[in-house]
């Protein structure tokens, strides 16, 4: 009996700890650098010891894949997970138990695909969900959601979202048809595609997929947009855009991030690895030392330790850098026990 139980435990551990799965989401704790959440194609995992061991914390959720996460900056034990097909789940205890948060998101099946979740920096009860049916706002911590799409008549799918941390009334939405900007807390939206999309395609609702948006916190009018066809930068709050980084080997940008406290330091990632610019996007340097795979799926900088970064790949698991991307080390998903953790 003991041998049989041990065999089952080892099989479960091996299945959960496979490095072959894609790391879709990385969510570092805002205050404690030892706590980290990730989502793969199958499960959500949590580490409390900087990645030495992991817990599977998917209990209570549907089997729908988690594709976005957000941690409450004021009460970090509160965690939100956006899924591909079952809207939003919320945990009040650091992922031990999950409850659905679907009111207002479950009217249309496709609305339940939540690509991004972002908090209002001035109000932790207020957050936004970027979905395949547009932008939704909650002012009660996810208990209910309302659509905020005035001005986005041509667009259905919102892929990425960003809020200006210094002026939270200013928001950017990355869509299948370029970028939209709101300057009144998502009450109204306007197209912001000058220079981003060629003039003959400006009226198309599927002109350019914007996968990632990042605002420079030291120069908030500077925003980077990673698209299926290159990286773009605005220096005037999305009134105009310039295409940059055209010499990089892959122009499909999957993730982008601006380093906090380092003016002009930008990271972008895609199918050919990670690149860094220290001059606002003028020149770029490959940052792939230690990576077994260059096919990158997710990127995150630790809010509490900005020298620490994480990369999720599509084939060789999770990696960590402790020197702002100069060197990378694998972080195996060593699950310490199966079942509820």
Briefly characterize the structure.
By secondary structure, the protein is mostly beta strands. It contains one helix and 28 strands.
What is this structure's SSE topology?
Elements: H1 2-16, E1 23-28, E2 36-40, E3 44-47, E4 55-56, E5 66-71, E6 79-83, E7 88-91, E8 99-100, E9 114-120, E10 123-131, E11 134-138, E12 146-147, E13 158-163, E14 171-175, E15 178-182, E16 190-191, E17 210-215, E18 223-227, E19 230-234, E20 242-244, E21 253-258, E22 266-270, E23 273-277, E24 285-286, E25 296-301, E26 309-313, E27 318-321, E28 329-331
Antiparallel strand pairs: 1-2, 2-3, 3-4, 5-6, 6-7, 7-8, 9-10, 10-11, 11-12, 13-14, 14-15, 15-16, 17-18, 18-19, 19-20, 21-22, 22-23, 23-24, 25-26, 26-27, 27-28
Mind explaining what this structure looks like?
The protein has 341 residues and is mainly β. The chain is built from one helix and 28 strands. Strands 1-2-3-4 form a four-stranded antiparallel β-sheet, with no helix packed on it. The chain has a four-stranded antiparallel β-sheet with strand order 5-6-7-8, with no helix packed on it. Strands 9-10-11-12 form a four-stranded antiparallel β-sheet, with no helix packed on it. It is globular, with a radius of gyration of 20 Å. Mean pLDDT is 88; it is low at 1-17.
């Amino acid at each position: 009996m003991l041998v049989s139980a041990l065999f089952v435990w080892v099989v479960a551990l091996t299945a959960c700890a496979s490095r072959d799965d894609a790391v879709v989401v990385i969510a570092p704790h805002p205050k404690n650098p030892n706590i980290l959440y990730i989502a793969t194609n199958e499960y959500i995992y949590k580490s409390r010891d900087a990645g030495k061991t992991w817990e599977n914390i998917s209990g209570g959720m549907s089997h729908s894949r988690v594709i976005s996460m957000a941690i409450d900056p004021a009460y970090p034990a509160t965690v939100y997970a956006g899924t591909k097909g079952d809207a939003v789940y919320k945990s009040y205890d650091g992922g031990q138990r999950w409850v659905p948060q679907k009111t207002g998101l479950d009217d249309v099946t496709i609305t339940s695909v939540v690509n991004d979740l972002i908090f209002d920096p001035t109000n932790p009860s207020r957050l936004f969900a970027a979905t395949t049916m547009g932008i939704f706002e909650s002012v009660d911590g996810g208990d209910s959601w309302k659509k905020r799409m005035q001005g986005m008549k041509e667009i259905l799918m919102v892929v990425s979202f960003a809020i200006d941390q210094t002026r939270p009334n200013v928001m950017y939405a990355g869509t299948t048809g370029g970028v939209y900007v709101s300057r009144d807390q998502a009450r109204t939206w306007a197209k912001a595609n000058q220079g981003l999309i060629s003039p003959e395609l400006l009226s198309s609702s599927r002109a350019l997929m914007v996968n990632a948006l990042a605002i420079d916190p030291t120069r908030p009018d500077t925003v980077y947009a990673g698209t299926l066809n290159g990286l773009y930068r605005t220096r005037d709050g999305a009134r105009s855009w310039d295409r940059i980084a055209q010499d990089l080997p892959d122009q499909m940008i999957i993730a982008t991030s601006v380093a906090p406290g380092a003016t002009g330091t930008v990271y972008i990632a895609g199918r050919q690895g990670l690149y860094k610019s220290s001059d606002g996007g003028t020149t770029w340097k490959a940052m792939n030392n230690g990576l077994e795979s260059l096919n990158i799926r997710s990127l995150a900088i630790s809010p509490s330790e900005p020298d620490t970064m994480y990369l999720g790949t599509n084939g060789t698991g999770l990696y960590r850098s402790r020197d702002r991307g100069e060197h990378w080390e694998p972080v195996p998903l060593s699950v310490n026990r199966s079942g509820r953790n």
